[in-house]
Amino acid sequence: MAKEYAKNEVALKGIGVSPGIAIGSAQLFAHQARKAVQRKIKPDEVALEIARLEEALITTHDQIKAIQKQVAEVLGDEHASIFDAHILVVDDRTFIEDIIRIVKEELINVEPVLQRVANRYADMLSKMEDSYLSERATDIRDVTKRILDNLAGETLNQMAQISDSCVVVAHDLSPSDTAIIDRSFVLGFVTDLGSATSHTAIMAKALEVPAVVGLHNITAVASSGDTLLIDGSRGFVFVNPTPGRLDEYRKRAESQEQILNELGALRDKPPETRDGYLVPISANIELLEELDAVDARGAKGIGLFRTEFLFLGTEALPTEDEQVESYVRAAKSQYPAPVVIRTLDLGADKLPANFEAFDELNPFLGDRAIRLCLSRPQLFKSQLRAILRASVNDNIRMMYPMVSCVQEVMDANTLLRECMDELKGKGIPYNEEIQVGTMIEVPSAALIADLIAPHVAFFSLGTNDLIQYTMAVDRGNENVAHLYKPTHLAIIRLIDHVVAVSQKHGLWTTVCGQMASSPMLVPLLIGLGVDELSVSPSQAPVIKDMIRKLYYSDSVELARQALLSTSAEHIGELCLGMVRRVAPELLELQG
Ligand code: PEP
Ligand code: MG
Predict the structure, then answer these.
(1) CATH architecture designation of domain 43-151
(2) Any idea of the CA torsion for 195, 198, 204, 206, to the nearest 10 degrees?
(3) Annotated catalytic, 575?
(4) Are residues 351 and 177 in contact, defined by beta-carbon separation less than 8 angstroms?
(5) Ion ligand 2 residue ranges (Cβ < 5 Å)
(6) 513 alpha carbon to ligand 1 midpoint, in Å?
(7) What per-residue confidence (pLDDT) applies to 298?
(8) Whose CA is nearest to atom 6 of ligand 1?
(9) What are phi and psi of 48, to 5 degrees?
(10) Cα of 440 from ligand 2 centre, angstroms
């Protein structure tokens, strides 16, 4: 019996991104471009095909109208009018009659006919001299994709349909996929693609479910219904594990549970080193559902509220009023501890459904975050007004993401002042003294931190992007994950520089990237002089334990040695040596 199991077990090694052990049944999610598969039909099925088409057209029409209404509210009528062209396509009787005629004549299902007719129209339009008409080709393609989705009866996303305990197996998961899953059913994630600081990894941590990414071929190896064992700390995945393996891991899970329970006792203890140096721990949140975990895990306040997640996984963008409600809820839950609301970091891998975005070759270097907001002032101002309105709760602060030059901070501040004037004109209260900071996550911003400093109240080091942009290593790409090195001297020097500038200008510096959630790297960050660590709520007990077992003086010495070192590997060894000496049990949890 044991032999038979042993034969079936497949062990894979990927990148562990969210610690913990999960055992459960696999559920495969294939995310592939929809193909309009051709199928012969009988003459008596023609009426049914036409009815399917008409129904999909009505659904599509309603969806576009709903999106248009939302866009008008958030972005203004000018942007909403783009969808008029989409409506024209769905309502175009010539287009529809063409499809029906071919279905009747050739006796094939409606999908490939729709695709063929749409392609013909789009090709014809794209060749037109008139630029208005040639641009309509894109509308036809967009609408066709939507009609095909509706013909397949797909809802917004398959992830929303999970209704049984399972381990999610996928080629890749976008942040919007993960934003809408029902966390009570998902025991863990495993994916072919991805890396440690991909936004999917961040979501897995937020959901507190073990996850291993960058497995290359898990979707080929595992089938729905297989038993999967995930070791999110070490990055192992076992498909159909042997009874011996299950036994070993159940014991390991028990021992991890015991360590975590002991850490739970730290909840109300201060994050203070043995020699009395306090390093406040705040939390990174993506969803309001995480607010309870912040306090429960012993963190204080929110150092990073990734507000773009409010815009993902929904058909419609949140309105200004809905945003106010979310920010007020966050502020009240943490009062009097600060809540740092990061303005929208949309773009790249984080795009809302139906968002009009550029088709870019390098989206992580493209229209993302503050750039995207500054080019859509109506969207940006609706968020700025919402933050200001919520700021009557005076623990609210705000910051801009992905700043790469001073002008962006100045332009954003100008829009903020415009919003203040608008609110004042209407007699709507807000906090005139609201603290505005900026993220430092692009090397150019780090290097000119002294020029940015006079325009802000604090810096927040986004090390996930700082490493990506400094080392030219895509943070979500498992093929180059080995080059993504938080202990690279370039990163250590940039952090050291930003802290020095910050101290000179009397500013406060937080680290809100994943480095702050790593017990191995925390002594180094503290030694470099950062003031605060903002971590995933689930990591707060681990980080607090690490701080409380440290001597600040040892951290300073560690940082001094790191700055003199010549290799990332050597700095990594120095950091590992420190954890081994002061908190070896954390290595059991983190892998
Ligand atoms: C970062 O880049 O380190 C960061 C905190 O922002 P995000 O991970 O949301 O890009
Ligand atoms: Mg970032």
Answers:
(1) Orthogonal Bundle (1.10)
(2) 140
(3) no
(4) no
(5) 441, 462, 465
(6) 5
(7) 97
(8) 462
(9) -65, -45
(10) 9
Q: How far apart are CA 324 and CA 428, in angstroms?
A: 13
**Would the CB of 476 count as within 6 Å of ligand 1?**
no
Q: Is 10-32+158-261's fold the same as 262-590's? A: no
pTM of the model: 0.79
Instruction: Among 512, 514, 518, 530, name the best residue to mutate to test ligand 1's pocket (greatest count of ligand atoms within 8 A of Cβ).
Output: 512
Q: pLDDT below 70 — which residues of the chain?
A: 1-7, 30-37, 71, 74-75, 79, 152-160, 591
Answer whether 462 contacts ligand 1 (Cβ < 6 A). yes
- Catalytic residue, candidates 199, 419, 488, 575: 199
Tell me which of 306, 350, 399 to substitute to probe ligand 1's pocket, judged by most ligand atoms within 8 Å of the beta carbon.
Answer: 306
Query: Ligand 1 pocket, 271 CB below 6 A?
Result: no
**Closest-lying ligand to the alpha carbon of 403?**
2
262-590 carries CATH number 3.40.50.2300:
no
345 lines ligand 1 (CB under 6 A): yes
| Residue of 198, 305, 439 with the most ligand 1 atoms within 8 Å of its CB, for mutation | 439
In the prediction, which pLDDT does 221 show?
Answer: 87
- What is the predicted pLDDT for the residue at 33? 45
From the CA of 350, which ligand is nearest?
1
Look up residue 400 and give its two tokens: 């801009």
Q: Whose CA is nearest to atom 4 of ligand 1?
A: 462
Distance CA 251, CA 245 (A): 10
301 lines ligand 1 (CB under 6 A): no
Q: Which candidate, 340, 338, 396, 401, places its Cα nearest to that of 368?
A: 401
Structure tokens at 172: 């890749």
Give the strands of the sheet with 15-18, arranged side by side.
Answer: 10-13, 236-239, 227-231, 21-29, 166-170, 186-191, 211-213, 15-18
> Which one, of 326, 273, 332, 286, lies nearest residue 582 by Cα?
273
- Nearest-angstrom CA–CA distance, 471 and 491: 9
Identify the helix (H) or strand (E) that includes residue 400: strand 396-400
User: Active site residue: 166, 419, 512, 575, which one?
Assistant: 512
Rg value, the chain, Cα:
26
Q: What are the structural domain ranges in the chain?
A: 10-32+158-261, 43-151, 262-590
- Is residue 166 part of the annotated active site? The answer reads no
CATH fit for domain 10-32+158-261, picks 3.40.50.720, 3.40.50.300, 3.90.230.10, 3.50.30.10: 3.50.30.10
Q: Tens digit of pLDDT for each residue in 342-369?
A: 999 999 989 887 788 888 999 999 999 9
Cβ(194) to ligand 1 under 6 A? no
pLDDT for 74: 67
- The CA-to-CA distance between both ends of the chain, in Å, stands at 31
Cis peptide before 537 (omega within 30 of 0): no
Report the candidate in 405, 406, 432 with the shortest Cα–Cα distance to residue 420. Answer: 432
Cα–Cα dist 508/351, whole Å: 31
How far apart CA 506 and CA 332 sit, in angstroms, is 28
Q: What are phi and psi of 108, to 5 degrees?
A: -130, 160
Angle at 306 between CA 300 and CA 309, to 5 degrees: 130
Closest C-alpha residue for ligand 1 atom 3: 462
Q: For residue 168, what pLDDT is reported? A: 92
